[in-house]
Amino acid sequence: MSSKRFADSQASIGQSSAPIGLFDSGVGGLTVLREVYRQLPSESVIYFGDTARLPYGKRSPAEILQYVREILTWMEQQGTKMVIMACNTSSALALEAVRSEFSVPVLGLILPGARAAVQQGRRIGVIATPATAASRAYSRAILEINADTEVWEVGCPEFVPLIEADRLHDPYTTAIAQAYLELLLQQQIDTLVYGCTHYPYLAPILRQLLPASVKLVDPAVSVVAAAAQELDLLALRNLRLPTPTRFCVSGSPQTFSQLAAPWLGYTPIVESIVPAQLIAQAPILEAID
Prior knowledge:
Elements: H1 3-16, E1 20-24, H2 30-39, E2 45-49, H3 61-77, E3 82-85, H4 88-93, H5 95-98, E4 106-107, H6 110-120, E5 123-128, H7 130-135, H8 137-145, E6 150-155, H9 159-164, H10 171-186, E7 191-195, H11 203-209, E8 215-217, H12 219-233, E9 246-249, H13 253-264, E10 270-272, H14 275-280, E11 286-288
Helix pairs in contact: 2-12, 6-8, 6-12
Pfam families: Asp_Glu_race (PF01177)
InterPro entries: Asp/Glu/hydantoin_racemase, Asp/Glu_race, Asp/Glu_racemase_AS_1, Asp/Glu_racemase_AS_2, Glu_race
Organism: Stenomitos frigidus AS-A4
């Protein structure tokens, strides 16, 4: 092998062993991370939760776009080979704007989720953050794939704060879910899409309130499958042992670690990065158990 071919092959191996970036406003993106663990177990991951600025679903499109640009800039600095927006609000409001701005491939949840929904049914309900629902991103994507479907999107402003506050077993959460589902139940949906990565945590409640015939669609499954295809296409599959997942948040590391532990099955070490540091592209200052 020539020295140039050897150098090129070493560079390729180095790039393939780079981590995948994954971000969300909080713990919701852990549902996508679990799919990465299941479908891409050899890949290393950097997870960022923008917990100081959650919930994203009540933010303006301009704010979301600014946050996403900051996070993607930071992700590129960390040497990621791909970034998955593990956040439907970001995917709906910022993906198209930022895709051409960054050299790293950026994947969103909307299109993979829409494709999965159309494969399941024709009367499709979407529960989402107010920002995602207002964007009608799922409706547009679903109808573009199959114009014969009917789609109803419902904004659910209280779900993310309730999940982040660990109130899944609170009767109030069930009552709120019942209220949000009322319109969709009236429309006799046959499929329900989790239009927010936090919402799979609500599965036991939703399953209790929905008819057994209604199929639940988690876009996390589909976006990670799309990521796997992209890695294969770009010859970027990791050929080495993965490194432990690196967790970073803009808010309290302790709060995130405690909330994430039951869903991960272990207590993560979490680093703190404040939003100002993201803007300034400054180094990480703190790491705690």
